UniProtKB/TrEMBL annotation:
It comes from Bradyrhizobium japonicum. Keywords: Hydrolase. The keyword Signal does not apply. Pfam families: Hydrolase (PF00702). One of its GO terms (molecular function) is hydrolase activity. InterPro entries: CbbY-like, HAD-like_sf, HAD-SF_hydro_IA, HAD_sf, PGP-like_dom2. The keyword Acyltransferase does not apply. It comes from the Bacteria. CDD domains: HAD_CbbY-like. This is HAD superfamily hydrolase (TIGR01509 family).
Length: 251
């Protein structure tokens, strides 16, 4: 029996990546399949604070439509139709416990970068492309993941790191991408956003940035029809033709 042929890379994937002056990465689900660790960390926080909440995968998949951990907890509490809403101090305390436990889970090494991510980062640097992060997660969560995956000096390779707390409105608003473009001093057409969710696709598209989607565990079935390219993971780029010349940076 013949082995199944590898899936063809959509036309233009390599060209889209290769001609960009900068690659802007989402974090959760895009760089690594972190969402399951986030779910476990939320449940840990609920137990620690004496709440009888338990987010299974089906519930968490629905809640991921709400961007931001604190916002997600508020949305869940609202769904319970129990008054009054949790005070901001309680939400903040839950989020601190959750964030600390997430970091502990990541430090075990159980959440490596997704296939093709490390190779793409290396190839981009070799081409002289700039790297950036635009995410709704916190700086602490970014550092916990990338310090484990790329080493403690990971931030030196990124020209801009914009997190959810750095902007007024989180994805699907364009704020995080507009702030990233401002820090890079680049135009939208000079960049490519690499995302895994429809909210991320909408956010980048609202900033007029071309989007490459890498499907992830929780968002595989999202509507990505507005994306330039949709891949199962970034290892598919290895078989595509990418331009190698250094790209001019917009001023």
């Amino acid at each position: 029996m013949q082995a199944e042929a590898p899936a063809a890379v959509p036309c233009g994937a390599g060209e889209l990546i290769g001609r960009a002056a900068a690659l802007i990465f989402d974090v959760d689900g895009t760089l690594a399949e972190t969402e399951e660790l986030h779910r476990q960390a939320f449940n840990h926080a609920f137990v620690r604070r004496g709440l009888d909440w338990q987010w299974d995968r089906a519930v968490y998949k629905e809640l991921l439509r709400v961007t931001g951990g604190k916002e997600r907890m508020r949305a869940f509490h609202a769904r319970l139709q129990v008054a009054p809403p949790l005070p901001d101090a309680d939400i903040a305390a839950l989020h601190r416990i959750k964030t600390a436990h997430y970091a502990e889970l990541v430090e075990t090494g159980c959440c490596p970068l997704r296939p093709g991510v490390a190779d793409l980062l290396t190839a981009a640097k070799a081409r002289g492309q700039r790297l950036a992060i635009a995410t709704t997660t916190s700086h602490g969560n970014i550092d916990a993941l990338l310090s484990q995956a790329l080493g403690t000096r990971w931030a030196a390779d990124f020209d801009a790191v914009v997190a959810g707390d750095d902007v007024r409105h989180k994805k699907p608003a364009a704020d995080v991408y507009l702030e990233t473009l401002a820090r890079l001093k680049l135009g939208a057409a000079d960049c490519v956003a690499i995302e895994d969710s429809r909210n991320g696709l909408i956010a980048a598209s609202r900033a007029n940035i071309p989007v490459l989607i890498t499907r992830s565990m929780y968002f595989r079935d999202d509507d990505f029809s507005a994306a330039q390219v949709v891949l199962d993971d970034l290892s598919e780029l290895a078989g595509s033709k990418q331009k190698t010349e250094k790209q001019p940076h917009a001023q």
